[in-house]
């Protein structure tokens, strides 16, 4: 490598990363202080850490219940989205010459332009009428609403795959199901990773749909719980910040463990899609 | 494969039905209700275009549109410029490349609402307190409580939260530019700015198009940011269209009226998307 390290860029990026880290640092440090320590200095590292804020926040917001609820929504959503959306896209991509499939493709794609506020008021009535105003209803809506973007991503990718393997499999007597499961789905692995990451982030962090559908305290997801308890934290910032840190913690842990895979997954998807 | 296997139909029909039932049907219902005086329950009758005519004279809705556009345009510009700059930095010869890349993506992993509450406390308590300790006048006030400045707080949160994704998109765009092009340019004596202007920028223009369209579309729907920071206030200074439809439709007994608002919003979003694609793609062809 004859090119020298660009120290200007390194320095500026370092400054920029402080902007990312400082709000999280503030939240963490405040969450570990008691009122006296907070009055002395907001941002200094305290001489003793107050984990009692965390214990209080866990009890008050019933943390583990909402953690369980968020997981209950996210895992099935991701699993079903991967299988169903790729299967639908496979059928569309391989039959684009047929009117029905072509229609279906443009039907899903054009739905991307419909803003959610138009659906928002009627869907709440519909879900209540069907007794789906609960966590299962959330899973259903995340799966259904993921279709437009994912059909767009998957169809583009599947169309670029050569058909020769599939044709060979047909001659060997494989049926369409077998071809999808044994040949296509495994080949989709890189794009599946991208879809899984984006779907998981959406389902885990979403606030609007849980706000609309969930009213039962014991069914609330992590972001919704923070909203509901917002007024009860009142001026106890340490308690509030402890609760926020707890709410962010699962995703931060996932990111620390799988950071490389997540980043390469998102980047790969953006080039193909 | 002359005949389409019936399996292909079975693969799509359930998804088709579900999508129609939970996406298209409510959208059609929304359009239907927009011509009625429905309040969310009970009887209703048709009122023709009355909701739409009333919208024209609705100052609150007008303000919501102005705020939403202002927020979406400013945020889209800042996010895309910053993301492109950071991506250029990450793509140059720097130290700790992977660490920086990882740090810049952290915000995108996190719930906007929860991060928004953290920012809310920072704007409301921490910055004013630090500002008055240090004797800096501008910082000692809570910008979220200021009619004219509250929207800037929302922009800051949005930029902080969503740049990570755009940075990665630009970075993957930059990595598609072959190194040979830069080497040829260097031999020709092109400086960094000319390299960017004549090589990098034209080649990543498609990424720019898609990024601008996607981020603008997302920011026009802004909701979580505002729920966490201002709940539309002070007054209605930061009430976005989505928030107005939510507030009016569920709490204000304006179900039909706000669905009419949503139909108008649909056409606005459509117009903006097509307008952007046309302008931006035209620019790409010019190169």
TrEMBL record, chain A:
Membrane topology: Multi-pass membrane protein
Membrane spanning residue stretches: 12-32, 70-92, 104-124, 139-158, 179-201, 237-258
UniProt keyword Transport, yes or no: yes
Acetylation keyword on record: no
Domain ABC transmembrane type-1: 67-258
Alphabetical keyword list: Cell membrane, Membrane, Transmembrane, Transmembrane helix, Transport
GO CC annotations, alphabetized: plasma membrane
Gene Ontology BP annotations: transmembrane transport
Domain of life: Bacteria
Primary localisation category: membrane
Location(s) in or outside the cell: Cell membrane
Family: Belongs to the binding-protein-dependent transport system permease family.
PANTHER family: ABC TRANSPORTER PERMEASE PROTEIN MG189-RELATED, ABC TRANSPORTER PERMEASE PROTEIN MG189-RELATED-RELATED
Protein name stated in the entry: Carbohydrate ABC transporter membrane protein 2 (CUT1 family)
Source organism per UniProt: Halanaerobium saccharolyticum
Automatic annotation (TrEMBL), chain B:
Primary location class: membrane
TM segment ranges: 7-28, 64-90, 102-129, 149-171, 199-220, 255-275
Transmembrane helix in keyword set: yes
Membrane association type: Multi-pass membrane protein
Residue ranges annotated for the ABC transmembrane type-1 domain, each copy included: 65-276
BP GO terms, sorted: transmembrane transport
Name the UniProt record assigns to this protein: Carbohydrate ABC transporter membrane protein 1 (CUT1 family)
Organism for this UniProt entry: Halanaerobium saccharolyticum
Lineage: Bacteria, Bacillati, Bacillota, Clostridia, Halanaerobiales
């Amino acid at each position: 490598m004859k090119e020298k390290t660009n120290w200007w860029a390194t320095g500026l990026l370092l400054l920029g990363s402080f902007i990312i880290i400082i709000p999280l640092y503030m939240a963490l440090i405040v969450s570990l202080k008691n009122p006296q320590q907070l009055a002395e200095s907001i941002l200094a590292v305290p001489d003793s850490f107050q984990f009692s804020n965390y214990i209080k926040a866990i009890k008050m917001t019933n943390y583990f219940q909402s953690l369980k609820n968020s997981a209950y929504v996210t895992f099935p959503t991701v699993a079903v989205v991967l299988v169903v959306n790729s299967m639908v896209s496979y059928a569309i991509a391989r039959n684009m010459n047929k009117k029905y499939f072509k229609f279906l493709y443009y039907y899903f794609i054009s739905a991307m332009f419909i803003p959610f506020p138009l659906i928002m008021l009627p869907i709440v009535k519909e879900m209540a009428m069907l007794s789906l105003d609960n966590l299962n209803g959330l899973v259903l809506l995340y799966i259904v609403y993921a279709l437009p973007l994912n059909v767009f991503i998957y169809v583009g990718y599947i169309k670029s795959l050569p058909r020769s393997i599939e044709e060979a499999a047909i001659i060997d007597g494989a049926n369409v199901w077998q071809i999808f499961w044994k040949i296509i789905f495994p080949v989709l692995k890189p794009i599946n990773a991208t879809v899984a990451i984006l779907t998981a982030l959406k389902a885990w962090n979403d606030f609007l749909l849980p706000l609309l559908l969930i009213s039962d305290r014991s069914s609330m997801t992590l972001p919704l719980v923070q909203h509901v308890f917002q007024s009860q934290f009142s001026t106890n910032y340490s308690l509030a910040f402890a609760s926020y840190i707890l709410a962010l913690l699962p995703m931060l842990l996932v990111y620390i463990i799988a950071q490389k895979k997540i980043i390469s997954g998102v980047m790969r998807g953006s080039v193909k899609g | 494969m002359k005949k389409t296997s019936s399996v292909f139909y079975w693969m799509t029909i359930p998804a088709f039905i579900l999508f129609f039932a939970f996406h298209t049907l409510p959208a059609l219902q929304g359009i239907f209700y927009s011509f009625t005086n429905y309040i969310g329950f009970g009887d209703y009758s048709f009122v023709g275009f009355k909701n739409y005519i009333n919208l024209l004279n609705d100052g609150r809705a007008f303000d919501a549109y102005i705020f939403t556009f202002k927020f979406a345009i400013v945020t889209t510009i800042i996010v895309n410029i910053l993301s492109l700059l950071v991506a250029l930095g990450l793509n140059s010869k720097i130290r700790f490349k992977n660490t920086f890349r990882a740090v810049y993506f952290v915000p995108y992993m996190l719930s906007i609402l929860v991060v928004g509450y953290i920012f809310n406390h920072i704007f409301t308590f921490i910055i004013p307190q630090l500002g008055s300790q240090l004797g800096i006048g501008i910082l000692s006030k809570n910008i979220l409580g200021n009619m004219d400045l509250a929207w800037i707080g929302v922009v800051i949160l949005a930029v902080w939260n969503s740049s990570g994704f755009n940075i990665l998109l630009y970075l993957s765009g930059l990595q598609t530019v072959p190194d040979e092009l830069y080497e040829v340019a260097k031999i020709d004596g092109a400086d960094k700015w000319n390299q960017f202007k004549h090589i990098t920028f034209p080649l990543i223009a498609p990424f720019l198009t898609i990024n601008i369209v996607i981020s603008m579309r997302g920011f026009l729907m802004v909701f979580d940011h505002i729920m966490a920071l201002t709940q539309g206030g002070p007054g209605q200074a930061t009430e976005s269209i989505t928030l107005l439809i939510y507030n009016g439709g569920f709490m204000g007994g304006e179900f039909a009226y706000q669905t009419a608002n949503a139909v108008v919003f649909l056409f606005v979003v459509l117009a903006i998307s097509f307008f952007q694609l046309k302008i931006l793609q035209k620019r790409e062809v010019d190169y």
